[in-house]
UniProtKB/TrEMBL annotation, chain B:
Keywords: Membrane, Transmembrane, Transmembrane helix. Residues 146-444 form the NADH:quinone oxidoreductase/Mrp antiporter transmembrane domain. It comes from Thiohalocapsa halophila. It holds the Pfam family Proton_antipo_M. It is found in: Endomembrane system; Membrane. The chain crosses the membrane at residues 20-37, 44-67, 92-111, 123-142, 148-167, 179-199, 234-260, 272-292, 304-324, 331-350, 356-378, 399-418, 438-463, 484-510, 530-553, 582-601. This is NADH:quinone oxidoreductase/Mrp antiporter transmembrane domain-containing protein. It is a multi-pass membrane protein. Signal peptide: none annotated.
TrEMBL record, chain C:
It is found in: Cell membrane. This is Sodium:proton antiporter. Its main location: membrane. InterPro entries: CPA3_antiporter_subunitB, MnhB, MrpA_C/MbhD. Keywords: Cell membrane, Membrane, Transmembrane, Transmembrane helix. It is a multi-pass membrane protein. Residues 19-83 form the MrpA C-terminal/MbhD domain. Belongs to the CPA3 antiporters (TC 2.A.63) subunit B family. The chain crosses the membrane at residues 12-29, 36-54, 60-82, 94-117, 154-171, 192-215, 221-241, 253-275, 287-308.
């Protein structure tokens, strides 16, 4: 068997690999920011798979790249950016609420076992 | 010309499909105008738009009934696969109506609480805009049949639902919101990947066109199994599994529920009502579309069984955990997890034809009405006492008798006593399961009894003599919980409780566009016997016995209850707590994806 | 249509793909958040090169502006504000092993699917080419975005506007009405100020060009908006200006005017072109240009405000940054 990989296949596989790496980071990442970063790795892996599909379709149809998946990726990139911005704002806001002496991650909660101690109403303050 | 004549082309005529795009455009338009009007105008704008939207949804349902076939509208005049197409069928019409109704009800209920004077400009503007956002996202989900268009709709929904959780801005709520956001985003990414692969496999994103192609491949299977078609078929099913996994995360099907209890338990009560009654149903509805409409023959795959087992797990564990909660809102949130489980019994039982699909759709409605009522009522308790911890709420029924009464009515609908929606669901699922698959019926019955148990626990707490005065055991002076505030929860609860008494012919709406369903006949058949003494007592008797047992147990006070839960209960709670750990839930997400892949392989 | 043979991966692609994977692994494995964030910015630029290799210039431009530029700014600000969190205990070995295996499994399944994509590849190139002339646009991607799949583009610009209001709603009540201050990261260095003086005029030209060229060549409202937003945030970062307060009526108009005009023209299409989001013949090109112009503005406003963060009270400087 000769090793003959088209560039679309190569980048498709690369996208699959990025998704796997990103999933690992999103699940086991050491801090909330890193999990967010890993989510962006997953997204970019997904988009690169789209890109590989666009390339295959494009070449089959006589163009450099199929415009439809390209348009979808542009839409997706903007949505992913907005999501990241929201998540970052939540993190920064949480950090501001944390007492300054506690230098632990504001979201250490996320990894805490038996996450039960949420009292959203702050002990009866309405 | 009279008004009916003017409207005729839309309600019963060639222009019926033109009712589809306003259902999407209206909430979007209001959403864009709201920031210009500011916090004060946003409330009025939202309420007015919601009532208009309710009328629009009614008109669409009427037009669909008149047409008796799905309505299709090509946006911009471009047909699929190049363009994006909207479609209205029976289940979609039901969801549109339900959404407009529940949002209007919750909006009216929240109108006084979410004003500038009460919560400030920030929370007011955000709350009303987010209601519009939820509405726009949901309508997009119900009308969509293009996989990427559905992705954008689901992102609109997520972006609106997450901030509802942290409107109050406390650290706990912000943490819950972050968790919800990140897990939902993981789900979105998986869904998007599946959609993209479908485009690469079939050159279209339209659910109908993909289903047609897949149906053709299924047919060809016996003819030439070695063909390249087989690998396309398998790859398509993997793509569906990817989308399905992402949507399961967003629906919070146990054990992927880590984000739901803190989010739904911590949000302001009207927001919790919307999140629990509607938002999780949005992603479920898309699962419904994928497995029932896109995949040509779910019966041939084991994946239905897998989803059903997860549903059964959710029913049992969710109800058991609800029974053990100390906080009323968390109890209601865990009850949501259990009720979501009932939806997933659809997938193993759908093969049997109509009754299971009818049952799942009725469950969506019944739970939405009952759960919206329960969260609004929990909000009333919270407003009156300043907290919602059951151990310190002894005798709250004396202070809030109306609240307690409506709470029981909504609870009975969840338990499934005739003639409630819950009863219809259980009986129809039972019919679909048939005589052999007794275990599904066992799960349904156990689930009902556990719900009866937590309801009895609330009742016992409410009726106990009030504890000697201590902070938080008596209603706060001047708390504003007038009787008027019971109107909306009462209406919602009665709706869920009396769902079975609706004329069966109304249920025929669900069947439009779906083969081999006979909702009207099935419902009529169930309700014919539901209120005969024999059937009524055989379903009510065990519930009464369990309820009495729990209440007797409770006479000894909450410490007796805690002892009663015992080591086994605490162990169960510990395991459930572990499942909600981020890393565990993440690993489970991947396992459920791989399990679905295995279950779609031959 | 002749079925062109798929070219084999050229020697540039294999190192590029490998570099991407290695960098991704490093991003996951590195200990400090700050280095990971810097690495991610480099990663964004590398991905832009991948898009060029895949022949998707429109996406490459978006990725470079958004993924490399604005995202880097956003994440660097976040890293500076959050500081280095105390390292959580590493997950137990069995957990790392289990999750690692599961991820390998997922990648494996995806790899099989990617390799089993059918040949000849189904595509919409011909369908787009056939109808592109009705939009009078030379760039097929632009035609898809603004005509064939207009509803997605509309909803996505709604998402952007909604996201800004959502972001603002994260502010404490007391700060409502204030201006965003997330980018106030201490005194800006002279290099940053110089950059912020030199780049914006250039960025403005590039942005306007991207918008104008986008009709026929790669580019368009998103790319142009992202470049303009990057210039604005750079100036805010260098304190050469400040983001507007959330009550500013003008800002809010700028935020929603893009999707609003898009929606209204779409609704007018019901009457004029007999389809929601349809364009009447003869007016197509001018209407599309109007839509793209206001959308560029709204995208720029939204992206810049998303980086600027929620409103905050004055004096909301960095928490003590002993670690960094």
């Amino acid at each position: 068997m000769t090793l003959s990989v088209t560039e679309a296949q190569l980048y498709g596989l690369c996208g699959a690999g990025l998704i796997g790496i990103g999933l690992y980071g999103a699940i086991l990442g050491p801090s909330a920011l890193r999990r967010l970063l890993a989510f962006n790795l997953i997204s970019s892996g997904v988009f690169i798979v789209f890109g590989a599909i666009a390339r295959r379709g494009g070449l089959a149809g006589g163009a450099a790249s199929d415009p439809v998946p390209q348009a979808l990726v542009i839409t997706g990139l903007v949505v992913a950016f907005a999501a990241t911005a929201l998540a970052v704002a939540l993190l920064i806001r949480l950090a501001a609420l944390q007492p300054k002496t506690a230098r632990s991650s504001p979201l250490a909660e996320l990894a805490k076992r038996r996450y039960d101690a949420f009292d959203p109403w702050g002990g009866g303050k309405a | 010309m009279s008004l009916p004549e003017v409207l005729a082309p839309w309600l019963d005529g060639p222009r019926a499909a033109e009712l589809l795009f306003p259902l999407l455009a209206l909430p979007v338009l209001a959403l864009l105008l709201a920031p210009l009007l500011g916090a004060r105008g946003a409330r009025l704008l939202t309420l007015a738009t919601l009532l208009l939207g309710l009328g629009l949804a009614l008109a669409a349902a009427a037009a669909l009934t008149a047409a008796d076939a799905p309505l299709v509208y090509a946006l911009g005049g471009w047909a699929a696969p190049l363009g994006v197409v909207l479609q209205l069928d029976g289940p979609a019409a039901l969801m549109l109506l339900l959404t407009a109704f529940v949002l209007s009800a919750v909006g009216l209920h929240a109108a006084r609480d979410f004003g500038v004077a009460a919560v400030g400009r920030r929370a007011t503007l955000a709350f009303w805009m987010l209601l519009l956002g939820v509405w726009a996202g949901l309508n997009g989900l119900f009308l969509g049949r293009d996989l990427f268009n559905l992705y954008v709709a689901i992102e609109v929904l997520t972006f609106s639902a997450v901030p509802l959780v942290c409107l109050k801005g406390g650290a706990g709520q912000l943490t819950a919101a972050f968790r919800y956001l990140l897990f939902a985003l993981l789900g979105s990414a998986l869904y998007l990947l599946g959609a993209g692969l479908m485009l690469g496999l079939h050159g279209t994103l339209d659910i109908g066109q993909i289903a047609e192609r897949l149906g053709g491949l299924m047919m060809a299977e016996g003819v030439d199994p070695a063909a390249a078609d087989e690998s396309v078929r398998m790859a398509s099913l993997v793509a569906v599994a990817l989308m399905s996994t992402g949507l399961l995360a967003k629906t919070a099907l146990m054990p992927l529920h880590l984000w739901l209890p803190p989010a739904h338990g911590g949000a302001p009560a009207p927001a919790s009502a919307v999140l629990s009654a509607l938002v999780v149903k949005g992603s479920f509805f898309l699962l419904f579309r994928l497995w029932l409409d896109l995949v040509p023959d779910l019966r041939a795959l084991d994946v239905g069984l897998l989803l059903g087992v997860l549903g059964a797990f959710a029913i049992l564990l969710g109800n058991a955990m609800a029974l053990m909660q100390e906080r009323l809102k968390l109890l209601v949130a865990y009850s949501t997890l259990a009720q979501l489980g009932y939806l997933f019994l659809l997938f193993p039982l759908a093969g049997a034809g109509g009754p299971a699909v009818t049952a799942a759709l009725v469950q969506v409605v019944s739970h939405a009405l009952a759960k919206a009522a329960l969260f609004l009522l929990a909000g009333r308790v919270l407003a009156a006492f300043g907290h919602d911890r059951l151990p310190r709420l002894d005798g709250f029924g004396r202070a809030l008798p109306g609240t307690l009464l409506v709470l029981l009515l909504a609870g009975l609908a969840l338990v499934g006593l005739p003639p409630s929606g819950g009863y219809l669901v259980k009986t129809l699922y039972g019919q679909a399961a048939g005589a052999d698959a007794w275990w599904w019926r066992l799960v349904l019955d156990l689930g009902g009894l556990l719900s009866a148990a937590y309801l009895a626990r609330i009742l016992a707490v409410a009726l106990r003599p009030p504890a000697p005065a201590a902070p938080g055991t008596t209603p706060k002076a001047g708390s504003r919980v007038g009787t008027l505030g019971l109107l909306v929860p009462g209406l919602l609860a009665l709706g869920a409780l009396l769902l079975g008494l609706l004329p069966p012919s109304l249920f025929a709406l669900l069947d439009i566009g779906r083969a081999d369903m006979g909702s009207a006949t099935a419902v009529a058949e169930v309700m014919r016997t539901a209120l005969t003494p024999a059937v009524f007592w055989s379903s009510t008797g065990p519930v009464l016995v369990v309820a009495l047992a729990v209440m007797l147990f409770h006479i000894g006070g909450d410490s007796a209850w805690q002892r009663g839960i015992g080591a086994a209960g605490r162990e169960l709670a510990g395991i459930e707590g572990d499942l909600r750990e981020w890393r565990v839930a993440g690993a489970l997400l991947l396992m459920i994806f791989l399990a679905q892949v295995l279950a779609v392989l031959p | 249509m002749p079925d062109l043979p798929l070219p084999d991966a050229r020697f540039a692609d294999i190192p590029l793909g490998l570099a991407l994977l290695v960098l991704a692994l490093w991003l996951i494995a590195t200990r400090r958040d700050r280095s990971a964030v810097i690495g991610f910015t480099a990663y964004g630029l590398l991905v832009a090169v991948v898009w060029v290799r895949l022949g998707a210039i429109d996406v490459a431009l978006t990725e470079a502006a958004l993924g490399g530029g604005l995202m880097g700014l956003l994440l660097l600000t976040a890293a500076a504000r959050l500081g280095e969190p105390r390292g959580q205990p590493a997950p137990p070995m069995f957990m790392r092993l289990l999750v690692g295996l599961l991820c390998v499994g997922v990648t494996g399944v995806l790899a099989v699917v990617v390799l089993s994509l059918p040949t000849p590849a189904p595509n919409l190139v011909a369908a787009v080419a056939e109808h592109q002339h009705t939009t009078e646009l030379g760039n097929p991607v632009a035609a898809v975005l603004v005509a064939f799949r207009a509803v997605d583009t509309l909803l996505e610009s709604v998402v952007l506007a909604l996201a800004v209001i959502v972001l603002w709603s994260f502010a404490p009540d007391a700060a409502w009405g204030e201006r965003p201050r997330t980018l106030e990261l201490g005194t800006p260095g002279p290099a940053l100020v110089l950059l912020a003086r030199l780049l914006p005029p250039l960025g403005l030209v590039v942005g306007v060009h991207l918008f104008w060229a986008g009709a026929d060549d790669p580019g368009g409202p998103f790319q142009a908006g992202a470049v303009l937003a990057a210039m604005a945030t750079l100036m805010w970062l260098a304190r050469l200006g400040a983001p507007p307060p959330v009550q500013s009526r003008l800002t809010r108009v700028g935020l929603v005017v893009g999707p609003l005009v898009f929606l209204l023209i779409g609704l007018a299409g019901v009457v004029a072109a007999d389809a929601f989001l349809g364009y009447p013949e003869g007016l197509t090109k001018p209407l599309i240009l109007i839509i793209e112009a206001v959308k560029t503005l709204s995208v720029a406003v939204a992206l810049a405000l998303l980086v600027a963060g929620p409103p905050a009270l004055p004096g909301n400087h960095l928490p003590s940054r002993a670690a960094s």
